[in-house]
Write a structure and sequence with these properties.
The complex is a heterodimer. By secondary structure, chain A is an alpha+beta fold. Helix content of chain A is 43%, strand content 22%. Chain A has 5 domains: 5-143, HPT domain (Four Helix Bundle (Hemerythrin (Met), subunit A)); 150-287, ACT domain (Alpha-Beta Plaits); 311-366; 370-549, Histidine kinase-like ATPase, C-terminal domain (Heat Shock Protein 90), CATH 3.30.565; 554-701, SH3 type barrels (Roll), CATH 2.30.30. The radius of gyration of chain A is 34 Å and the shape is flat. Chain B is mainly beta. Chain B has helices spanning 3-6, 65-68, 146-149, and strands at 10-18, 21-26, 30-35, 49-55, 58-64, 81-88, 94-101, 103-111, 130-136, 139-144. Chain B is globular and about 45 Å long. Residues 159-164 of chain B have low confidence and may be disordered. The chains are: A alpha+beta, B mainly beta. At the A-B interface, strand 22 and strand 23 of A face strand 4, strand 5 and strand 7 of B.
């Protein structure tokens, strides 16, 4: 077989990580003391698949480790171990080690072999802790003490389409060969005439004779994946006792050379036929594996691939079909157009509009993934953390099927983890404390996601102690952010937790308290065009609400005109727009104009100066000031005129050009012209570069509004 | 393939006129030729970057070759021609760009071995962008290296900033 394994390698890793996720979530669903066969089987299957896959890629250490885990799981499956916390923890850890080994070999880096060995020893210890009967099995599998040599007769007749499922009989035979001396007899009776031959079907059946010490489960295991797609008949002859004392010499004689014995009645001409069939099988196999690879857009660097449900694709195909019909309808109208057709044309155009909009929505939906992809890691996180902190926590997930853009989802993962860790560490109290204040011992952590007016809202709430406003206040005073006599409402105090360097934790722990984090969380969310707000009630708990745009590809924009150029400002960054009262404009060091807006001093950015645009309003009273915020700073953008607000599709400038300072991208307006999207943070930098002013420019800072 | 076979290979080149000079670019790099349309200016860019246009949903930057080569500016009008080309940048990324020229002239077969290196002085343009000179039906044409030309100076992709 000449299949390029590197192509499938990425696929293997992707699937293995999925399997590990399944394993983990099944483990967490297991209830202590009860035996849930389905879950245990899930876990076993996952481990088995990883072992099998790793074998193909000769990742021997992973195979060995997975084999141990699998053996252990097999016994769990046979109810030889009771399911307790220690067992679940051990298996979770084993999963982690596997994940570590897998990602190490994926990136071709070294991993901590010591950790793996420790866990492996633990697994073996756990194995040893069972009954004598079990020990025999271990002995057989690990130390390979010679057992009874038997002769197995296996009739294996795969169904015709077996190759299409990705199974290859040769691999099965290879695995069997590892168990002992294998003789393979191919039966080619079923091969049709050449004309009727479907190269992608398997017409062969086999009779296999295996002389091996293996037991029936070993053999059945090999056929486990094809059992539903073949006729399988396994019989056994125990060989005479004398066979047990095989001398070394006879082992050499028995050297494993699998050969295909063709029945005598087959005349040599047929060999050619077989060869050509064989070639076709190989071709078909390659075709299929190519298909499998192609299905995954860009297998290298799996962060770039996305799995799309077939229903979504079908939907799209339907819609494109409709679009084509509409197009041909319009074509027909256009061919012999006269004025009486105007109604038809109008209908056609509105149909076209509907088709286009639906198509756009559906294409966008391809990028959408349910938030469960992110939520699913939390049961494990909460499990581990609560054990570590000695707290009892119940995690409630809801709205897991809420969909959001893949990019947003990926960028939200870390902030969410941070917030959950914070809630566990600072929010939920220790069981004794909870009892004292009359709350149930088990704290609740609630993760919720839902859609609200074109946004997605993610809430993390707990029923813990809530924020200690006094502590926050003290800290803020200590840091010099406020003076002791300043009176702030709670919401203003909560604002401080988002300041860099803020932490009320007296001691820095493994979990949190380093004071880096919340500011990063907020920045990440802002980068995605979202916002975060906090509600808290002392003694009752706190709640973080994150509001995010559904997708990064579309944003609500405000069109502004400067001279003849039209620019787009993201609506989210605009605070207000106003007509300038010249008496409130002050000059600052000659280069900067400052506008006094209520309590704030806001620098005026004349867009036409920044961008060097001709023919514009140059007197402040001729235009408008748009107060916008970027990176925590407010600026006033001086523009000629505000135009309409509309949803815009973001196009990249960098694809064909390069990054332009002050501009985050471009969009195409209704008339087909290009408009640039302004980036407030970039504008501030551009302004600084142009005026060469020091970076401690007194730009208006956000006052808690 | 051995070199003696290679030497006979001729490639098709599209030529265009700038002022009085005739320039040639590899025709396989030419995506389309279109008329002048309104561009959206990009702030703070050199004068030879006219701006960007919407080419069926893609944002394509337009470069004025006259200005790039320090020739006199000529008013854009209905006769102005934009040649849309595929450019391969240093990092192997393909970019689509438009170049403004006075007019498209012809398509020639140019035998690769007959492209002679340019004299490395006396030319207003940096000879770095010139692949060579060739004579086609008694006329001299300047064969341009479009990749080098459209990845130079201000047009270069700065690594780290260019994430699609």
């Amino acid at each position: 077989m000449t299949i390029d394994l590197t192509q499938v390698r990425g696929l293997f890793f992707e699937e293995s990580f999925e399997n590990l996720d399944i394993m983990e979530s099944s483990l967490l669903d297991l209830e202590i003391g009860t035996f849930n066969e389905e879950l245990v089987n899930n876990i076993f299957r996952a481990a088995h698949s990883i072992k099998g896959g790793a074998g193909i890629f000769q990742l021997d250490d992973i195979v060995a480790f997975a084999h141990n885990a699998e053996t252990f799981l097999d016994e769990v499956r046979d109810r030889k171990h009771s399911i307790d916390q220690a067992l679940i923890d051990l298996l979770l850890r084993a999963g982690d080690i596997l994940r570590m080994m897998l990602s190490a070999s994926k990136d071709e880096i070294e991993y901590d072999t010591h950790l793996a060995e420790t866990c492996q020893t633990e697994l073996q210890q756990a194995l040893a802790e069972t009954t004598e009967f079990v020990e025999e099995i271990i002995a057989e599998e690990i130390i390979a003490v010679p057992a009874v040599l038997r002769e197995w007769h296996i009739e294996f007749k795969p169904d015709l389409p077996i190759l299409k499922t990705g199974n290859d009989p040769i691999n099965l035979f290879r695995e069997l060969e590892e168990l002992g001396e294998l003789t393979v007899i191919a039966n080619i009776d079923a091969i049709p005439d050449f004309a009727d031959l479907d190269p992608q079907s398997c017409y062969l059946s086999w009779e296999l004779i295996l002389r091996s010490e293996a037991n029936d489960t070993d053999i059945e295991e090999i056929f486990e994946w094809v059992i539903d797609e073949c006729e399988l008949n396994i019989t056994v002859n125990n060989l005479e006792d004398t066979e047990l004392s095989i001398s070394e010499q006879s082992i050499e004689e028995l050297e494993i050379t699998p050969e295909i014995i063709v029945p005598k009645e087959v005349i040599p001409q047929n060999i050619e036929t077989i060869k050509s069939i064989n070639n076709k099988v190989i071709e078909a196999h390659e075709e299929i594996s190519e298909d499998i690879v192609n299905k995954h857009i860009n297998t290298q660097g799996n962060t770039n691939s996305i799995r799309v449900g077939i229903d979504k694709i079908d939907n799209l195909i339907n819609m494109v079909g409709e679009l084509v019909i509409t197009q041909s309808m319009l074509d027909q109208i256009g061919e012999n157009f006269d004025n009486s057709d105007i109604m038809q044309l109008r209908d056609g155009l509105s149909q076209l509009e509907r088709n286009t909009r639906e198509l756009q929505e559906n294409v966008m939906r391809i990028r959408m993934l349910p938030i469960s992809f992110s939520f699913n890691r939390f049961p494990r996180l909460v499990h581990d953390l609560s054990t570590q902190l000695g707290k009892k926590v119940e995690l409630i997930l809801s709205g897991e099927s809420t969909e959001l853009d893949k990019t947003v989802l990926e960028k939200m993962s870390d902030p969410l983890v941070h917030l959950v860790r914070n809630s566990l560490d600072h929010g939920i109290e220790l069981p004794e404390q909870r009892k004292q204040v009359g709350k149930p011992e088990v704290g609740q952590l609630h993760l919720n996601a839902f859609h609200q007016s074109g946004n997605i809202v993610i809430q993390i709430s707990d029923d813990g102690a809530g924020f200690d406003t006094e502590k926050i206040r003290a800290k803020a005073i200590q840091k010099g952010w406020i003076t002791p006599d300043e009176n702030l409402v709670d919401e203003q105090l909560y604002e401080f937790i988002f300041q860099p360097g803020f932490s009320t934790s007296e001691e820095v722990s493994d979990v949190s308290g380093r004071g880096v984090g919340m500011d990063v969380v907020r920045r990440n969310i802002r980068d995605l065009g979202g916002s975060i707000e906090v509600k808290s009630e002392a003694g009752k708990g706190s709640k973080f609400s994150i509001r995010l745009p559904l997708t990064l590809a579309i944003l609500d924009g405000q069109l502004v005109r400067v001279g003849e150029e039209i620019f787009v400002l993201p609506l989210l960054s605009i605070m207000e727009s106003l007509r300038i009262q010249t008496k409130l404009v002050n000059s600052f060091t000659g280069t900067l104009e400052i506008y006094k807006l209520r309590d704030d001093y806001i620098p005026i950015f004349r867009l036409y100066k920044l961008f060097n645009i001709k023919n514009t309003a140059t007197k402040l009273e001729q235009g408008l000031l748009v107060i916008a915020e970027g990176d925590g700073q407010k600026i006033g953008l001086f523009v000629d005129e505000l135009l309409s607000q509309q949803q815009i599709v973001i196009k990249s400038l960098e694809n064909n050009y390069k990054k332009v300072q002050g501009v985050s991208g471009a969009t195409i307006l209704g008339d087909g012209n290009v408009a640039l999207i302004l980036d407030i943070t970039g504008l501030i930098q551009l302004f600084r570069n142009q005026t060469k002013s020091p970076s401690y420019l007194p730009l208006g800072t956000i006052r808690y509004e | 393939m051995s070199s003696d076979i290679n030497s006979d290979i001729s490639n098709k080149y599209l030529t265009f006129v700038l002022a009085t000079e005739e320039y040639a670019i590899d025709i396989l790099r030419v995506q389309e030729i279109k008329g002048w349309c309104k561009v959206t200016q990009i702030p703070n860019t050199p004068s030879y970057v006219c701006g960007v246009i919407n080419l069926r949903g893609t944002i394509v930057p337009i470069v004025d070759l006259r200005l790039r080569f320090n020739l006199d500016y000529q008013e854009y009008g209905s006769m102005t021609v934009v040649v849309v080309v595929n450019v391969i940048s240093q990092n192997g990324k393909e970019r689509i760009m438009g170049v403004v020229v006075d007019g498209v002239s012809d398509v020639y077969d140019v035998i690769e071995t007959e492209i002679k290196p340019p004299p490395d002085f006396g030319s207003v343009i940096n000879t770095e962008f010139v692949k060579g000179l060739s004579t086609v039906s008694d006329k001299m044409v300047i064969v341009l290296d479009i990749d080098k030309l459209l990845n130079s100076n201000e047009l270069a992709i700065i690594d780290g900033l260019s994430q699609g």
